């Protein structure tokens, strides 16, 4: 009787499942209420949309940064300390019926990954509405404050998401499909763990399927780099990708198509040279960035504790300091006496040189290389490896404390305790991209230079933001029904890929044969919403950016 009553009022075609989309890191609009009467950023009692607003004025930029900042971290409660007299929420807040949430994630700096800024079938929203789905009834969005951590969400947004899902199940008479891009995956995983802790049967009774897209279930090395060192990162000079076949190698412009670099470049255009330092201080206080950093992988037995940071400790072998002014430090580009190597990259980051002068009439001794040509003498050097300290994911708090950041160490410890690599216990259809050079490890010369030095990056397979070791966590879960790999599609464009939308549609509408028959496309066959291919990904992002100054920002 209950099901008949529910179905008579259903807002969805029979046999379909309502879709709940959760938002990613940064790619959700936030609004602010500043009640500090002494501040020129005071919003005079009104919520002001700053993050995600394409019409934001230059005068609002510093207020935006001020509003995004958190005051600190409560080690005992495992919660962020908000800035006094400043409130932050997803755009539109949480409606009284706990349903409306599309407003925060459907429009972001002039476009959105759900609708793409136009009403056709090339994006998820228009495609599902054409099938009979209705916004906020059967096609539902959930926004949240993406700066925070798991314990904050357990108090603030997880109860909202639970009520939203329960209402959707009641109204539509069917369990929901949960999906979303990037940090949406770990966020949903953490939510399911929380819901199960309150009611062991709740996930099975309410979730038809979980479809994470480009989810960094074991974090992203790029996010780790942002909280360890400088917000802006360097790109590896080697450009190798040993597990790519063939690798899609990003162009110099592509290398800036990542979350922190795009953010930094935009702010730099608005507040000039203070951008990196200001962003560093803001981002280092976001618990979500530690949540999105690489941790232990519990999908393997025993758990994998990957090495993610390597540091030469600055103690060069004695051979490198034998000859006074020709002594060198690890990663040096010149000798102690100031003689610059002809090739500044002669020494690697973890190498020093045993250098000596020889007459221009004599060749360098076997095993030595000529590194500088003088009038009467040449400088001949022999490379030596420096001692290095490698930090595994579990040792990252130790690294933070070593460089004098106890608050960051505490946030990292908590992030390591809320792993999202365990089996979520609901049917999973896991979608991710691969075959693009992606950050997989970081290296610094010394711990003393870590907070000012840009990282040297090791590249391997991934989607340019999420490395494959993190994305592939879901392939080892017993609950995973199927894995869908998209070759050559960059992270930011995954929700623009037709083959990705095909999976979500097939699972939500019970077209089982369609997703069962799904096969990985060739790189040349990956189709984007602009009817382009992988080769057009860069053009797609550029086209988006033309609509507004922040369009196409990378979402992690």
- Backbone structural class: alpha/beta
Radius of gyration: 25 Å
- The domain count comes to 2
Q: What's the number of helices?
A: 18
How are the secondary structure elements laid out?
Elements: H1 2-8, E1 19-22, E2 30-34, E3 48-51, H2 61-68, E4 72-74, E5 79-81, E6 86-90, H3 102-106, H4 124-130, E7 139-142, H5 150-155, H6 158-172, E8 176-181, H7 184-198, H8 202-206, E9 207-213, H9 221-228, H10 259-271, H11 275-283, H12 287-291, E10 307-312, E11 351-359, E12 369-373, E13 377-385, E14 388-392, H13 396-402, H14 406-417, E15 428-434, E16 438-444, E17 456-460, H15 468-471, E18 480-487, H16 498-508, H17 512-516, H18 537-547
Parallel strand pairs: 1-7, 1-8, 8-9, 9-15, 10-16, 15-18
Antiparallel strand pairs: 2-3, 2-6, 4-5, 10-14, 11-13, 12-13, 16-17
Helix pairs in contact: 13-14
Task: Give keywords.
18 helices; alpha/beta; Rossmann fold; 556 residues; single chain; disordered N terminus; 18% strand
Concise structural overview:
It contains 18 helices and 18 strands. The protein is an alpha/beta fold and 556 residues long. It folds into 2 domains: 2-308 and 392-547, Rossmann fold (3-Layer(aba) Sandwich), CATH 3.40.50.1820; 314-386, no CATH class.
């Amino acid at each position: 009787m209950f099901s008949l009553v529910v179905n008579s009022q259903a807002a969805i075609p029979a046999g379909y499942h309502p879709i709940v989309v959760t938002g990613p890191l940064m790619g959700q609009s936030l609004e602010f209420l500043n009640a500090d009467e002494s501040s020129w950023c005071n919003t005079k009692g009104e919520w002001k949309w700053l993050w995600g607003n394409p019409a934001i004025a230059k005068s609002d930029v510093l207020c935006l940064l001020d509003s995004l900042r958190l005051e600190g971290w409560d080690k005992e409660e495992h919660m962020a300390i908000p800035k006094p007299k400043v409130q932050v929420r997803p755009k539109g807040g949480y409606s009284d019926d706990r349903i409306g949430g599309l407003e925060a994630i459907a429009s972001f700096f002039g476009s959105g990954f759900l609708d793409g800024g136009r009403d056709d079938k090339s994006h998820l929203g228009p495609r599902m509405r054409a099938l009979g789905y209705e916004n906020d009834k059967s096609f539902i969005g959930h926004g949240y404050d993406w700066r925070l951590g798991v314990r904050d969400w357990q108090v603030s947004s997880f109860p909202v998401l639970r009520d939203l899902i329960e209402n959707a199940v009641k109204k539509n008479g069917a369990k929901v499909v949960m999906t979303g891009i990037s940090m949406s995956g770990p966020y949903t995983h953490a939510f399911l763990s929380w819901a199960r802790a309150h009611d062991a049967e709740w996930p099975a009774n309410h979730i038809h399927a979980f479809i994470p897209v480009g989810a960094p279930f074991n974090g992203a090395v790029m996010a780790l780099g942002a909280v360890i060192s400088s917000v802006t990162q360097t790109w590896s000079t080697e450009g190798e990708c040993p597990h790519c076949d063939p690798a899609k190698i990003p162009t110099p412009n592509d290398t800036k198509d990542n979350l922190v670099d795009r953010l930094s470049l935009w702010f730099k255009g608005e507040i000039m040279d203070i951008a990196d330092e200001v962003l560093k201080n803001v981002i280092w206080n976001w618990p979500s960035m530690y949540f999105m950093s690489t941790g232990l992988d519990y999908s393997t037995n025993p758990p994998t504790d990957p090495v993610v940071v390597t540091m030469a400790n600055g103690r060069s072998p004695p051979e490198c300091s034998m000859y006074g002014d020709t002594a060198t430090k690890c990663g040096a580009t010149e000798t102690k006496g100031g003689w610059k190597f002809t090739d500044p990259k002669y020494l690697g980051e973890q190498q020093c040189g045993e250098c000596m002068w020889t007459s221009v009439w004599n060749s360098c001794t076997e095993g030595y290389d000529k590194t500088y040509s003088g009038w009467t003498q040449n400088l001949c050097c022999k490379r030596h490896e420096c001692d290095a300290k490698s930090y595994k994911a579990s040792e990252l708090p130790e690294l933070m404390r070593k460089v004098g950041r106890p608050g960051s160490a505490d946030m990292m410890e908590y992030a390591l305790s809320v792993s999202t690599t365990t089996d979520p216990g609901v049917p999973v259809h896991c979608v991710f991209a691969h075959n693009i050079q992606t950050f997989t490890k970081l290296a610094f010369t010394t711990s003393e230079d870590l907070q000012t030095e840009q990282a040297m990056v090791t590249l391997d397979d991934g989607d340019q933001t999420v490395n494959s070791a993190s994305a592939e966590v879901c392939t080892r879960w017993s609950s995973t029904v199927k894995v869908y790999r998209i070759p050559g599609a960059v992270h930011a464009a995954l929700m623009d890929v037709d083959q990705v939308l095909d999976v979500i549609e097939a699972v939500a509408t019970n077209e089982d044969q369609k997703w069962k028959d799904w096969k990985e496309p060739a790189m040349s066959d990956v189709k984007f919403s602009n009817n382009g291919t992988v080769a057009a990904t860069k053009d797609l992002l550029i086209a988006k950016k033309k609509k507004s100054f922040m369009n196409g920002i990378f979402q992690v």
